[in-house]
Write a structure and sequence with these properties.
mainly beta, seven-stranded mixed β-barrel, four-stranded antiparallel sheet, 2% helix
């Protein structure tokens, strides 16, 4: 299974054209086929990533921001699969894999198991992992100012567990 996740910026109401915060979210549809719409999510919204125990998934980070973000997934190690250029339409809130572009493999220093990957602007970064331990965890940007300001989301492996926050 592939999960499509978005890294995006909300625009400032005080300074037109300037970002006010970086957020995480989801991408609906298949951006390799057509423009796919993103939806921003805040920390306190419902879990949108809920892999089954034992599932292996590819997570795609579509970076629609102007910054590189070190993305960290708690309680998982993963392998970096590849990266590919994307087209970002901020007005329509869509991303699309750039037609005719080819994926580039992980850099030599990215080989092996990781728990953090740099998601570069204007690219989709793909990582592959298996989910073994049930529970509720988080994925987030590892820039502290971003992490502390809504660029963090919960995810759950398996069914809800007693005592987990909702």
């Amino acid at each position: 299974m592939t999960r499509r996740l978005a890294l995006l910026e909300e625009m400032s109401v005080f300074f037109p054209g300037a970002p006010s915060e970086a957020l995480l979210g989801t991408v609906a549809g298949d951006p390799s086929m057509a423009p796919a719409e993103w939806t921003s999510q805040h920390w306190d919204e419902a879990v949108t990533e809920n892999p089954a125990v034992g599932a292996t998934e590819v997570w795609e980070f579509y970076n629609a921001t102007g910054d590189a973000h070190p993305m960290h997934i708690h309680e998982r190690v993963f392998t970096v699969v590849d990266r590919q250029a994307i087209l970002v339409d901020e007005a329509a809130q869509t991303v699309m894999v750039e037609p005719g572009s080819s994926p580039t493999p992980a850099e030599p220093w990215e080989r092996g198991f990781k728990d953090t990957v740099i998601a570069y602007p204007g690219q989709v970064t793909r990582v592959k992992m298996t989910f073994g331990q049930p529970g509720q965890f988080v994925w987030h940007c590892h820039i502290v100012e971003h992490e502390d300001n809504e660029m963090m989301r919960p995810y759950r492996i398996g069914p809800p567990q007693p005592g987990e926050p909702t």
